[in-house]
Write a structure and sequence with these properties.
5-stranded mixed sheet, 17 strands
């Protein structure tokens, strides 16, 4: 199997209230992990900058597009909430920065770097297309904070993709036009009635909702572990769900197994104390990113 991943890597300043760290990040990075764990062949399509040379995902990036700009985000956790602000933003991906042969494709932009026209091109070249909706809903608002806004392009994603992942905040944004007077599940049913995609909503520690062609299913998942920080969990879940779905074809079983795998990954990451390779604050400042 070959998997092609689309989106720009990031450098993240993560503030948890307990610590601050500077880490490699980005949807394509976290989505690559369950694939590399299984020794699958992966290709990553991104815009590369000098600041990303130490980023682990660069080893798998098809080096076609270069930029002087990098996605640099500040992620601040407070209780169960997270805010994201943008320090610097990388450019969108060009259409020629794409794979040639058929591929299982994961599109996981962080903020608008994949447009719908590129997604249409990838649809034609993909055996199966999985998308994380986050990058199609995010915009830069006041004070450079990332905000969610519903859009026509998000609805087009539901028409083009086979599998779509959103978290609960993104799901509420998606269904906002149907929300008045309806429960969340009713609004989700209305949203997906004409959609071809399997829409998977991760709803925190213990609940996953799956919607397809207007049918909505709630799944209760294990909630015995609460991670110190959940950065990347949704991205890891998307790739893991794709792998499980390719194996079983069962939309519910795939969600349960993906949740189990993400939980084990978060446990391992917390035990390792501070994750994959990251910059010290001194290195961060020396790179001109303070």
């Amino acid at each position: 199997m070959k998997f092609c991943l689309y989106g720009n890597p990031t450098i993240d300043v993560v503030n948890t209230g307990v610590e601050s760290r500077v880490s490699h990040g980005g949807g394509v990075y976290y989505s690559s992990m369950p694939l590399l764990k299984r020794n699958f062949n992966i290709e990553v399509y991104s815009a590369i900058s000098p600041r990303l040379l130490k980023h682990p995902v660069i080893a798998h990036t098809v080096k076609l597009q270069y930029s002087s700009r990098t996605n640099i985000f500040v992620l601040t956790y407070s209780g169960n909430t997270r805010s994201i602000s943008v320090v610097e933003r990388a450019p969108p991906l060009y259409h020629w920065n794409s794979h040639k042969d058929l591929c299982y494709t994961i599109v996981n932009p962080v903020i608008g770097e994949v447009d719908v026209s590129l997604l249409k091109l990838l649809r034609v070249k993909s055996q199966l297309l999985a998308v994380d909706m986050q990058g199609f809903l995010r915009e830069v608002g006041e004070n450079r904070e990332v905000v969610l806004r519903p859009s026509i392009k998000a609805l087009e994603v539901l028409e083009l993709a086979d599998i779509v992942h959103v978290d609960i905040e993104e799901a509420w944004c998606l269904v906002s036009k149907y929300a008045a007077g309806n429960s969340f599940n009713e609004a989700l049913s209305m949203l997906t009635r004409r959609s071809r995609a399997i829409l998977v909503v991760t709803r925190g520690l213990d609940k996953i909702t799956i919607a397809r062609s207007g049918s909505v299913i709630d799944i209760e998942a294990d909630k015995s572990y609460k991670a110190i920080d959940k950065t990347g969990a949704g991205d890891y879940f998307l790739a893991e769900y794709l792998v499980q779905y390719l194996s079983s074809g069962d939309i519910i079983e795939s969600a349960c197994k993906a949740h189990e795998e993400v939980t084990q990954w978060l446990k391992s990451r917390d035990l390792l104390l501070h994750r994959a390779p990251y910059y010290s604050m001194g290195e961060f400042r020396s790179l001109g990113m303070s």
